[in-house]
Amino acid sequence: MVTEFAKHWSLSDSFEMWEDKITLAHNVAIMQQIAQGMEHLSAEGIIHRDLAARNVLVMSFGETDVQKTLVKIFDYGLAAGSYDHSHVTIASVQLLTRHMSPEAVQKDLI
What we know:
The chain contains 3 helices and 4 strands; from the N terminus they run H-H-E-E-E-E-H. The protein is an alpha+beta fold. It folds into 2 domains: 1-79, Transferase(Phosphotransferase) domain 1 (Transferase(Phosphotransferase), domain 1, Orthogonal Bundle); 82-110, no CATH class. The strands form 2 sheets. The chain has a two-stranded antiparallel sheet. The longest helix is centred in the first third of the chain and has 20 residues, at 24-43.
């Protein structure tokens, strides 16, 4: 898989670096972009399952111009839809068994 280079790293790293520079307007723009990305995934029938600041890349950051701030969702390792073959349904709950410890699987079987 080839992805774009995100020179500002993940959103969680950026929050730490730019703690005093991120304004409410930046936060709103970032949240809107994440929501749009999740909406697009949903429209494609994909469930991300691991949305977190560490899984959002900051492609650009406009310190004075919020419109230049761009984030993108990545890390689809736990996504459902194209990875259904690695899931098992137990008591009507779909579990991702390849990433679960045996103890967690046993607890859900009881």
